[in-house]
Amino acid sequence: MKVTLYTTAGCHLCEQALDMLQTLQRDGMSLTVCEVDISESESLMEAYGVRIPVIATGEYEDDLGWPFSIGELTAFIKREV
């Protein structure tokens, strides 16, 4: 599954979210992570500026904004929420 991580440079919370995604990958979840730097788009800055890190999938219209735990992230990706 493709997962988009909306992020920006120097965001320590974004680094934590990426680490969570990498943990899920190591645990066997088939994920392709695409990082998108919101600072490169005014519309992304407006949409996600105060919410990053934000996780989105191509499967669903909603997203998961910080704060979230690895359990909440797993549930979001698996759509158990």
Task: Walk me through the structure.
By secondary structure, the protein is of the alpha+beta class. It has a single domain (2-78), classed as Glutaredoxin, CATH 3.40.30. It has 3 helices and 4 strands, in the order βαβαββα. It has helices spanning 12-26, 42-48, 70-78, and strands spanning 2-7, 32-37, 54-57, 63-65. A 4-stranded mixed sheet has the order 2-1-3-4, covered by helices on one side. Strand 3 (54-57) and strand 4 form a beta hairpin. It is globular and about 35 Å long. The protein starts with a strand and ends with a helix. The mean pLDDT is 93.
Number of strands: 4
Q: The CATH topology, please? A: Glutaredoxin
User: Strand content of the residues, in percent?
Assistant: 15-25%
Shape: globular
Q: Do you know the CATH architecture?
A: 3-Layer(aba) Sandwich
Largest sheet: 4 strands, mixed
CATH C-level name: Alpha Beta
Overall helicity:
25-40%
How many domains? The number is 1
Secondary-structure-based class equals alpha+beta
Please write out the topology:
Elements: E1 2-7, H1 12-26, E2 32-37, H2 42-48, E3 54-57, E4 63-65, H3 70-78
Parallel strand pairs: 1-2
Antiparallel strand pairs: 1-3, 3-4
What's this entry about, in short?
With 81 residues, the chain is of the alpha+beta class.
